[in-house]
## 1
Amino acid sequence: MTTDAPADARVTRAWAQILEWLAEYTPPSYAALRPGASDEEMAELEAVAGAALPAELKALWRLSAGEDGVNGTGLMLGGWTLMPLDAVAEVHRRQMEVEKELGEDGPAFWEPWWIPFCSRGPDHTVVGLFLDGRTGEVRRWSRYGDREREYTSLAAYLELMAVSLEAPLTAAGPEKPGMLRGALVWGPPDGESRDEWIRHLGQAPPRHPAKTLGAIREALPHDERDAFDVRRDALDLADPEAVAAFLDHWWGRAVQAQEKLEDDVASALRGNVLAQPGGRLAPEYEAALPPAIRHRPPSFWDIRAALRHESVRARFDQDHLKAIPPHFPALLLRWWDIARLMADPCGDRAVRAVVSGRHEARKARQPRPS
């Protein structure tokens, strides 16, 4: 698909990628999505709104007309819930009633072509996102009249979400994809559920090593392997209880080491992966990395040459100058994923939005359309 593809085609493509990811990684979230809406249902919504629905929203709703939520929250980027059409109609009706009560003086509280599509939760519809049918912008609404722009378009929002799911180590912003009781939750979440939330790191290997001598040894830190070898060689293999006790002890230690490695990878953008630029990662780190980035880290010049836009190269140069040596490997891995994503038009647009910060909310209130 070319970069000048129609907005509704971009929405269809990005949402299809998201649906594939949800079906593979978070079945409860996938199951919470409602079936697509018919043309008749969307025509009824247009009659209620008194305005034509944007083609981008129709493309999204033809595939998924809302969600029921899991764990009290939604699956959309930023922790938003994709609103069912009946909730869309109710919020639009309620906002238009307030607009009529306020009269025509001052900036608009709500316009007919502002179509809400996300709310904070399945039963929380006092704040959310709407699509401006005239400008194509995605903006934030609240009951207090906030109307801040969040994204340049619905397609840009969904493409950024798709990129964050498919290349989670490059996810920008405070929200990172993760799982809570099998469902997609952007986090880390607040409260008691924080300890249950597991950050998604891509196609990672199983969390715990197999309970065999070879697998346990490979999962141990290098400085503990000599002690393991000594005790293994002294072990009486004819004594089942001694063998079981040995395996239990060292497997527990290997699990602790593996969990620490996962934490290190999750914190990679803060410089916890130690290796020389252009060299190999230590085996224990390489084993914990998703296959998508389990490769010889490229050099600074390899990455810089692969970045397609001068503005993006300038941001890379800036990050590199600010980094201290222990941060270099994580920095290179992140930017190498960004360079690979930019080879695809969908990823290219989303990456440039991340790098330039255009997806950040703008505090200035937008002027009322004339």
## 2
Amino acid sequence: MFKFVTTTPARSRLAPTLVRCLLALACAGSAANAAAAAPCYNFSPVNQYNVQVSASFWNPIIHYVAERSGVCLNLKLGRTSADTTSFVLAREVDFAFTNHLFSPERMKMGWTVFGRRNLPPVRSQIVVPADSPVRDLRQLAGATVAFPGPEALVAYKASYAQLLQRDIPVNVVFAGNQDAAFTQLFAGMVKAVGANSQLVENWKGREGAAFRVLWSSEPFNDLALMYSPRVPSERARAVARAFLGMHRDPQGKRVLAAAAELIHSPAPISFIAADDSDYASYRAFYAGVPAELR
């Protein structure tokens, strides 16, 4: 005697499973398409250190911010600070850590300040080794003086403007970044260096070098975290939240502590909210600077 088993119940059991599988595949495909469509933004910080140290400082920070914000970010560094700024001017990046965008012409590009490091203000300085016979700016007349690069507002434009105002002619050499300028100074290749006071202190800690400061400017706030007008507001806010909340998150605190140790920062590093008003001293500088430095 044969027993026949209908296949209808089996089809009814398989149908919901099949539907769920198809829906899952469709959702996965939609998510993949959405991920593929999500843009990745380049982040360019001014080269304050040599390329290796700059990349080692910023890569873990950018990785953390991208992970926390859900916004894809790439670190884009040039060989020199001027190269890196050229990426910004060519609209190849949409996030930056810079003070190169506060001239009247560049402010027309529409970048927005959202944060800065919670570090003391910096000063433009002209420095020599502590054992140098040079004790006065006038002794630099006719000498070779190194600067990080033509875009460096604090380390080049402000310090060189001081030499111009005092009518002290010097032979200008651009080293590419502040580390390279200091290396030339202590190798005896140049007589003095235009510098950022924060980076002078970092170099002291990293290399054990001693400086004599011949001149120091009024204070400027540390460089600004900025985003371009092309970044959608929700993504800009997400990136800002991730930067500004780093020091309150255990993983973020570890990343910041490692960054501070790397550059021998004399103070802990964190990021705080900032806006355009924090950079009034930069705009004031450009209002009175010689035309050749704008």
## 3
Amino acid sequence: MPDSSDVTACDWEREPDPSDSLRTFGAVVQALREHAGLSRADFGARVRFSKHTVESVELGRRMPDESFVERAEEALGDTGALRKAARHLSRGEAGLAAWFRRWARLEKVAVSLCTYECRLVPGLLQSESYVRALCENDIPPLADGALEDTVRARMERQQLLVERPNTTFDFVIEEAVLMRRLGGDQVTRELLDHILELSAPRNVTLQIMPAVCEQHACLAGPVRLLETSDGHWRAYAEGQESGRLIADRKEVSRICMRYARLRSQALSPKDSTGLLVRMRGAL
């Protein structure tokens, strides 16, 4: 799997559905193989995989492993096309939207993560009962299996906060999101307790944007930012049924400036914690 430095401004901004990415890669393999005048059997012999495996890869039914990609490159001219195409392959992760998967992979190697949300509590801070409330409000309704996959994936993703103590996590959340009490009072109690627990470590900073404020730097909507180990920043913006990974430096720079100004406008971490404690006590 490529590290975060492999994501450039010219990469796809929205990850394709897993089946689409596999079919696209398979079509590239087939086109190069046919251009080289090789049958599937001949090509299979060169890459040391069976004819049936070659067929499965070309039809997008099988995820090629690294050895297949490398041997196929050597057999088909070593142009680098297959290595580059393989970077966009996805097995698919149950419970994660297709457009979010690339960002989720980048989160795992980031040295800094910043999140602003005005619609709902960020996924990394959601309690299980809150996730279930979100799923139950989804339209059209999720099947039971899909709902459980979503809950499991969301809770597993939160292990980042435990497994990466040297990564900084910064969150700015609108007070109105917590005032909504999605799922009812009991769900909100559990949510507030969960947020207070997860935001306690010193590498996690939580700030609340007050419901009444005269200035607001992120009126354009929610956003996520991350810094890679090589010092590059990426941004991610999400809407209904879509998400966009942003690598253009000028665009990312503008978003970074907005987020920095927003942090100066939000309550301090200490005051934010105090507000959450008061909200919890009022339930």
## 4
Amino acid sequence: MQGIIKTSVGLTLEVKRAAIEAGEEIQDLTAQVAAEKRANSARTRRAKADGEVTAQGATAG
């Protein structure tokens, strides 16, 4: 009986460890995706602003 309990506790700890690691990986991926989206959004805003300035300069010049 003691062996079963030790095995169960060990298995439980391994499952918890695996769940924590999976959660950390998901957080890392989420942070990467968020950073990429922010970078893309900033590039889009810059391109739009550059386009507006170019368009204004073209009509004025």
